[in-house]
Write a structure and sequence with these properties.
The complex is a heterodimer of chains A (about 140) and B (about 140). Chain A has about 140 residues and is α/β, with parallel strands linked by helices. Chain A contains five helices and five strands. In chain A, strand 1 and strand 2 form a beta hairpin. With about 140 residues, chain B is of the alpha+beta class. Helix content of chain B is about 35%, strand content about 30%. At the A-B interface, helix 1, helix 2 and helix 3 of A face helix 1, helix 2 and helix 4 of B. Chain B: One of its GO terms (molecular function) is kinase activity. Chain B: Keywords: Kinase, Transferase. Chain B: This is Serine/threonine-protein kinase RsbT. Chain B: InterPro entries: HATPase_C_sf, HATPase_dom.
Chain lengths: ~140, ~140
């Protein structure tokens, strides 16, 4: 058994950055740890940064899809970020589409994706005022 | 065809699968494969090494850089003494699995490499050989 992957908490988001080549049992452990942390912290979002991964094979792909499905059931959204272009090409050719998994190019875009999309009252008023001025 | 270098690795644990990926990546780089071809080859090797572990009870991997005088390539062979594959056509079908996987290991890895051959019979183990040449 290797070391577990650290899970960071930022506000209501959990951030996992996979920096090493994952062993299968470590990947399964991460899946369990994430489910546990979501329920314990009430996190609404999970960002998995895979920019450190040189390959995503069917096992890791299945783990990512499972984390997305598990977090959805636990009322949290998962975004996988940082996939390398060569990894994306290989995954598609392998037959892994990661259907049901949201992706973003980097952590920043992933965080933006998880932000609640409802507008604040202030934004609505400002937009209305701007529109009035234009007329 | 002259052989430049060769490495043999035994696969009996999850950690060995990671070691196979790392060794195969080094050889694919030596063979001057493009980054995408390297990634595809390493991903295929990861699938085949895991298959060997899960279905064949472990086995041996042999990886080498090959040359035909004009081009270089990387070749890897995966041999186990497991139960063999009774219906090869079925095993090479996308989505078919005798275990708990996604059924992409054999069919998917075949798409990721330049050459793919498989030698198996019920009770006689399985040997898969893959190769990709530099362009």
């Amino acid at each position: 058994m290797t070391e577990s992957v650290p899970i960071l908490k930022i506000g209501t988001t959990l951030l996992v950055s996979i920096q090493v080549d994952l062993q299968d049992d470590t990947a399964l452990q991460l899946q369990e740890d994430l489910a546990d942390r979501i329920t314990r912290t009430g996190a609404r979002g999970v960002i998995i940064d895979i920019s450190g991964l040189e390959i995503v094979d069917s096992f890791i792909g299945r783990m990512l899809a499972a984390v997305a499905a598990i977090s959805r059931v636990l009322d949290a959204q998962t975004v996988v970020v940082g996939m390398r272009p060569a990894v994306a090409i290989t995954m598609v050719e392998l037959g892994l589409s990661l259907g049901g998994v949201r992706t973003a190019l980097d952590v920043e875009r992933g965080l933006a994706m998880l932000e609640p999309d409802e507008e604040s009252a202030e934004d609505v008023l400002l937009a209305a005022a701007a529109e009035r001025e234009q007329r | 065809m002259t052989t430049a270098t060769l490495e043999r690795l035994a696969v009996s644990t999850d950690a060995d699968v990671v070691r196979v990926r790392q060794a195969v990546r080094t050889f694919a780089q030596q063979a001057r494969l493009s980054l995408v071809d390297q990634t595809k080859f390493v991903t295929a090797a990861s699938e085949l090494a895991r298959n060997m572990l899960v279905y064949g009870g472990g086995g041996d991997v042999e990886v080498e850089v090959v040359s035909d005088g004009r081009r270089t390539g990387v070749r890897a062979a995966f041999a186990d003494e497991g139960p063999g594959i009774p219906d090869l056509d079925l095993a090479l079908t996308d989505g078919w699995t005798s275990g708990g996987g996604l059924g992409l290991g054999l069919s998917g890895s075949r798409r990721l490499v330049g050459q793919f051959s498989i030698d198996t019979a019920p009770g006689a183990g399985t040997r898969v050989e893959i190769a990709t040449w530099s362009r």
